[in-house]
Task: structure prediction
Amino acid sequence: MKSLRLHKMIPIKLLFVNPEARMLEQKDYEVEFSIHTEGPIKDATSGAISQNKGFQKVVYMLKDIIDESIVYAPEQIPLMEKYFADYDNNFVVIPFISETMLIECLHSKFNRITDENTYVDFISLKDKANNLGYTYLNDEEDDYDLPVDNFWVGEFPFWETPWWKRYDSTTFDNTGKNVEEQKVVREDREDKQVDRLTTLIFDEIDQNIESALGEQKPGEIVDLEEIRKTRKPKWKPTLV
Result:
C-alpha cells in the first residue's frame, strides 16, 4: 500500500518544574514527527486535504501552544496556583515528569486532533544540551499507558477527559477542592464558551486548507503563516 509521510522538525523550549531543587529547569528540544493518511480516501485531493489539516494542527500546537510552556505534575498544582497563575506561559500537566511521558501524551493529543484517516506515526524528542533522543512509536489506535479518565489530576476534575484525549488546543487540566467548586468552574467554562474558543483555530485551519487546496496540486503543503496573519488571538488557559 502506497502512502506519503510528511516529516517536520521543530525546535521548542520547555520549563520543567523541579520542586526538589526549587527551580524551573529549561530544556531545549528538537521535536520531530511523521504524519500520513491512509484508508478509505475517495481521491487524492481528499487525502491531501486531510493530511494538510493534521499537519498544520500539529505544527500549530508545537509552535504556538507548547513552545515555552511550563511542564509540571499534579502534585505541583498548588505551587503553580501560588506562583505562576498570572504568567503568560502555557501550562502542560502530565501524570509524572519525564520526557517519555511527555511525548506519549503529545502522541495521543496529536492523533486526537487529526482526521479519522490521518495518523501521527511517531514523535521524537531530542535534548540538544545532552545530545540525547527519545522516540515514541505507536501504530495502535488509543493504545496508550495513560489515564483514561480525569481523576488522575484530582477528585473533582474540571474536565471529564484528560487533555490528551480532547479535540481542542489545551494541554492543561485542574481539579476543584470540592464538588461545589467543580460545578462553578464547569458552569463558568460553559458560560464563557471556552470549549468553543479552544477549537476555533482548528476550524480556521480546516477552512483555509479546504479553500487553498482547490487551487493546489495534491501533496502540496499549505503555509500556516497565511492563517496566522488573519487568526484571532488565542485563548489563554488559566489555573482556575
Notes: The first strand starts at residue 5 and ends at 18. The chain has one domain: 5-230. The chain has seven helices and eight strands. Residues 231-240 have pLDDT under 50 and may be disordered.
